[in-house]
Write a sequence for this structure.
């Protein structure tokens, strides 16, 4: 792009081939689990599973964005992270609205299917989180990737607990509570990523100004 040539702040970190490979694996697994949970959530009538399915879709898109900007300057990596942070926060707000709507309808989910899909999703997300753990202290782009995988693993543990709660109480409230927790994680993590990415964008512009 014009104005973004040799004088832009170059990436000072060496991009690990392991990180790139981990992102590709995470992208494929998240895309697969989106379809599993969107179908399973529909059959189980679970808000938590639907929320997690949308989260899988968002994460797959985020991993794709991360791969696209991996070798670019800090400014563009931070810009991608800013987009992901906004997406994470918007997703959380959407889930909160979905929780309120489901509470109004009063539909009780099917706990056994919830539990089975929750366990499968947990296995996938723990595997992804384990792959990305070593890169959690990188720039905003790397941090956003790690936060996505960490949040997903926490959410799946909560979904399994919610399935037990629905089975034990026969009510929808454990499902709605877990969906709200997923929403909170999305909003808080998105806010954290937005703050760091804005700071890195500002820093990169200062370096660009010095290089002009």
């Amino acid at each position: 792009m014009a104005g973004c040539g040799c004088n832009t702040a170059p990436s000072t970190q060496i991009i690990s081939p392991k990180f790139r490979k981990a992102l590709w694996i995470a992208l494929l697994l998240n895309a697969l689990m989106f379809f599993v949970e969107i179908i399973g959530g529909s059959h189980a009538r679970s808000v938590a599973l639907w929320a997690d399915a949308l989260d899988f879709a968002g994460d797959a898109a985020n991993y794709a964005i991360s791969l696209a900007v991996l070798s670019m300057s800090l400014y563009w990596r931070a810009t991608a992270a800013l987009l992901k942070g906004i997406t994470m926060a918007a997703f959380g707000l959407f889930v909160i609205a979905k929780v309120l709507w489901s509470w109004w309808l009063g539909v009780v989910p099917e706990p056994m299917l919830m539990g089975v899909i929750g366990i499968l999703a947990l296995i996938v997300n723990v595997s992804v989180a384990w792959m990305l753990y070593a890169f959690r202290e990188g720039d905003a782009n790397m941090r956003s990737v790690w936060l996505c995988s960490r949040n997903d693993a926490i959410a799946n543990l909560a979904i399994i607990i919610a399935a037990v709660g629905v089975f034990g109480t026969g009510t929808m409230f454990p499902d709605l509570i877990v969906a709200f927790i997923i929403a909170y994680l999305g909003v808080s993590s998105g806010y954290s990523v937005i703050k760091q990415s804005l700071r890195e964008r500002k820093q990169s512009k200062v370096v660009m100004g010095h290089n002009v």
